[in-house]
Amino acid sequence: MSKLDDLMMQALSQEDQELLARHGEPGYFAQAFGLFRGPLSWVIWLVYGLILAASALSFYAFWQVYVSVDVLGAVKWATLGLVLTQIVMMGKGFMAQHLETGRMLREIKRVELQMSLLRGSR
User: Fold this and answer.
1) What is the C-alpha to C-alpha distance for residues 22 and 33, in angstroms, rounded to an integer?
2) How many CA atoms lie within 13 A of 1 on its CB side?
3) Residue 112's Cα: distance from chain center in Å?
4) What pLDDT, on the 0 to 100 scale, is given for residue 11?
């Protein structure tokens, strides 16, 4: 916590401090599974399905590279495997951005709550 957070907590009553403690940061898994709820959950489910499908296909493509006997076939399968791996990485980046957006929105709401509690205590 910063000095500003300490000063704000000192200005709050015990009841207000308990209220803020209940609205703290949830754990990582709670945040990650929270992506699958809400108004944009269908997009997250769609991207997650795409990630699973692209992962499975990329494993298959790299397996084909391993068992391939001709160089041209191995290059084609390797290219497909790399493209599918890039799709997986972009999907994970998309989900990570939504995770971070949720964290930022929670922090903004927490600051708003702190400001309203400080304004109400005066």
Assistant:
1) 19
2) 9
3) 23
4) 64
